[in-house]
Amino acid sequence: MASLSRRLLTLRDLGSAVLFQPTRCISTSRQAWSQAKAALKPLLATSQDNGVRIICLSNPKQRNALSLRMLTELHAALSDEDKDLRVIIITHKGPVFSAGHDLKELTQETGKEYHEKVFSTCTSVMNLIQDLPVPVIAQVKGLATAAGCQLVATCDIAVASEESRFATPGIHVGVFCTTPGVAVGRVLPRKVALEMMFTGQPISAKDALLHGLISKVVAEEKVEEETLKIANHICQFSKEVITHGKAAFYAQMSLEKRAAYRFAERAMVDNLQLPDAQEGIRAFIEKRPPQWKY
Fold first, then answer.
1. Is 133 exposed, middle or buried (0-12, 13-18, 19+ CB in 10 A)?
2. 138 near 151, Cβ under 8 Å?
3. CA gap 180, 93 in Å, rounded
4. What is the pLDDT of residues 56-75, one digit of tens each?
């Protein structure tokens, strides 16, 4: 009983202390609580409908920076397995798709080990995108810079608005965009990629399309519609065949031409053994729509 009384007294005293603290302290506490809630708020939003998962980078106040937390959340959203999943779209809130890494995380104070964690997590996300069994589409309506540009370059398809721009501007702050250059340098001509990295100057959506960084440029109000159109079109086909084809494409890209052809030959033969491949061929011969198993 005495123990219970002491507990009640302690709780009552604590309540009185909170109730009668000065207004300034209450205001400070509310501010701290607000900041804590903001820190816990997810940095991206995810939804899925009819086989299409939309991952929206949702931290526009920080220009959708690829902080360690954002990268961790993005990795989780991409990794979430679902047998009905056919296509993933990565889009964004605000005028910036992503400004790349959060420079506040790359200071001397955060330390080398933390820096290594940031870059290794980023690399894991980029590798995951191309290892996934479904296509990933970047939907861009604005600026994509540094690791944000790397993310666009890594996606299988990219649809952008006419006003979008792309840059690797690390040179401006004394940090060469070496990791973004891995992806950018594999989709752009070497001299174009190096000019972007040496000067830090952005290129237009028109030039990004011309050089192969993005797939399609449309008016800003049409970006979402066009992206969903592509995603829904992909959803019509066999997931099994898409998965096989995507893996084979990226595998042969790293090979010398003759080796790539040998690999591709084996991949084609393996493709023909899939149930949906035989169904597709039979449907074509019989002049009917295919009934995909997967």
1. middle
2. yes
3. 22
4. 999 999 999 999 999 999 99
User: At 112, which helix (H) or strand (E)?
Assistant: helix 112-131
**Three-class HEC string of 41-71:** CCCEEEEEECCEEEEEECCHHHCCCCCHHHH
From the list 37, 48, 43, 98, the residue with the least C-alpha distance to 75 is 43
What is the pTM for the complete model shown?
Answer: 0.86
CB neighbour burial string for 30-51, b if at least 16 within 10 angstroms, e if fewer: eeeeeeeeeeeeebbebeeeeb
The two three-digit tokens of residue 120, written as one number = 């290794």
Instruction: Name the DSSP letter for residue 104.
Output: G
Give me the amino acid identity at 281. Answer: I
Query: Which runs of E-coded beta strand occur in 150-205?
Result: 157-161, 165-167, 203-204
Rounded average pLDDT over 108-114:
97
